[in-house]
Amino acid sequence: MSGSDGGTPGNAEYGKKPFKRSKSHFTDRITADGRDGWPVEAHRYRLIASRACPWASRAVISRRLLGLEDALSLAIADPIQDDRSWRFTLNAKGLDPVLKIHFLGEAYAKREPGYSGGVSVPAVVDVPSGKLVTNDYQQITLDLATEWTALHRPGAPDLYPHAHRDEIDEVMAGVYKDVNNGVYRAGFATNQEKYQAACAGVFRRLDQLTPRLERQRYLVGDTITEADVRLFTTLVRFDAVYHGHFKCNLRKLSEMPTLWAYSRDLFQTPGFGDTVDFDHIKRHYYQVQAGINPMGIVPLGPDLSGWLRPHHRQELGGHPFGDGTPPEPVRADEEVPLAGRP
């Protein structure tokens, strides 16, 4: 994610033009057989993410659920972009300690000299060459689940099981169109008609998902899958930024009992909530998207304590990791700072 259209306009331009999700420009895949020239190898690649970005957060969650922390290193970008987009100013001297670059755009330029398009996260970079491999946010997590299996931890869940792929794909397509993307279409709408259509679509899809989640703990089957990861990263941001900043305010998540309980269940599942940084989320949306929030004021709320309240979703059955096990506790160097936690 890098703005309303995948490009790198100045921050003041965010929110002043219609929303359009750009296709990923670099769509090479990292696969077990290396058919695109990028074979799966431990320690070769680096995942660049922002904890503010829902698209990048999918990859951060998947990496943790699958136990790929030792195989695939992680760089967290500053949630506050400048006009050169994602930067490594959270690190000493503003330099990524592995890639030795100040801006993610440098890896894009190494892949394609003179590149002037969007610089987005998630991105996977080849460490030896410093070149970007892929910024295909739709495919990265699917490949982590299906192509990186030799490096998965013992007990890792199957996030994209063969038996349920058609149903997962169908659910994800609707969630992507109306929820993941819908909140952005509402937030960046440039007229009343477009805003109303997008906002109504968000809640229509959430209402359609509710009966499914009233009768089963997870979206597809009785374990967590890629579908849950993709819905969660929007829901966890809903009350903090989408309800107010993007005007998706027909209801708060906390006012939708089934979805609120479902979201708390996932948040309290190892691998989900322990990757979420509400401080990064709020500061990014409210301070970077100056076209929507020109004063850059970050609201104090909402109260985050509700994320830790009992959800009772276990009464529906299901097991988050199937026959597997939860991931190990978060590594000390990847813990979310206290300022970003409930």
Describe this structure in words.
The radius of gyration is 19 Å and the shape is globular. The chain is built from ten helices and four strands; from the N terminus they run E-H-E-H-E-E-H-H-H-H-H-H-H-H. Helix 1 (54-65) links the parallel strand 1 and strand 2 (73-76). It has helices spanning 54-65, 105-111, 137-146, 165-180, 182-187, 192-215, 226-235, 238-242, 257-267, 278-288, and strands at residues 45-49, 73-76, 123-126, 131-134. The protein is mostly helical. It has a four-stranded mixed β-sheet with strand order 2-1-3-4, sandwiched between helices.
Roughly how many Å apart are the termini?
24 Å
- Enumerate the spans where pLDDT stays under 50 for 5 or more consecutive residues: 2-9
- Give, in order, the helices and strands: EHEHEEHHHHHHHH
Class derived from helix and strand content: mainly alpha
Q: How much strand content do the residues show? A: under 5%
Number of helices: 10
**Overall mean pLDDT score?**
94
| Widest β-sheet, arrangement of strands | 2-1-3-4
